[in-house]
């Protein structure tokens, strides 16, 4: 599998998709007041992929949802492409906390469910096996059950931000991207400007990690707008904008019966990142999640889901043990011992 550099440039257009998961599963008040419009729109987005849906929301338990931003075009084409934004959101009604855990798209990981042992960049899992493989691969990587998924293609960001009347963010940088300049400071952004703010990577000193932070800033800004009275009045317009761009396996009936139990979570959102180390494999740049970093992220996620701590043991930790000199700084060469056979061309790293 080879990817074009052209696709990569578009990868962050759907970052606002986390909003959908949090509104629909944390903001039960919207379901309560706008039941019929929500049901109609939600039925068009529901795609269980043949898997038995989790009962966590229905039972009011802590749960996880995998947020996937897919690098396809507009017009609702979300069935193919790589998932270049990966966020595991945990929602705990007891602590009233929602935590967004960003995972670097270039993280080396096993494609769980593939017919052969196959290590690739994590964002390839969705391309190879859809949401089912993406859920299984990330579940194995970070050592938690993934209850639900939500995908969105890159065509929806502008329409969604415009649907809520724009958002207010504070930028730490002044930069120009895609012929739009974002100045350092606090600004009100329309959809196209929010897209620019979320997409820029190369002028950020933190690179992809800085972009992840800006993605999460956009998510929180939209959530803040939606939990306001004005946001409620725009809800129908937002749902209409989402229909062609979003797919999820969260059952609507579960939201109706359990959604109100999570209503306080919308106002308490924090962010975390899995930090990787730079590596070169088959001539392409990867991120290696060290065993220490994986353990830290896994146990943070498990605490939020009220699960006991555990020692991570997967293909990644086994390879880490076989690369004792790798540190991502002095040594960036990483040996997969033949488990990675993909060469990414056209500057896809």
From TrEMBL:
<comment type="similarity">
    <text>Belongs to the LytR/CpsA/Psr (LCP) family.</text>
</comment>
<dbReference type="InterPro" id="IPR050922">
    <property type="entry name" value="LytR/CpsA/Psr_CW_biosynth"/>
</dbReference>
<dbReference type="Pfam" id="PF03816">
    <property type="entry name" value="LytR_cpsA_psr"/>
</dbReference>
<feature type="domain" description="Cell envelope-related transcriptional attenuator">
    <location>
        <begin position="82"/>
        <end position="227"/>
    </location>
</feature>
<feature type="transmembrane region" description="Helical">
    <location>
        <begin position="12"/>
        <end position="35"/>
    </location>
</feature>
<protein>
    <submittedName>
        <fullName>Transcriptional attenuator, cell envelope-related, LytR family</fullName>
    </submittedName>
</protein>
<keyword id="KW-0472">Membrane</keyword>
<dbReference type="InterPro" id="IPR004474">
    <property type="entry name" value="LytR_CpsA_psr"/>
</dbReference>
<keyword id="KW-0812">Transmembrane</keyword>
<keyword id="KW-1133">Transmembrane helix</keyword>
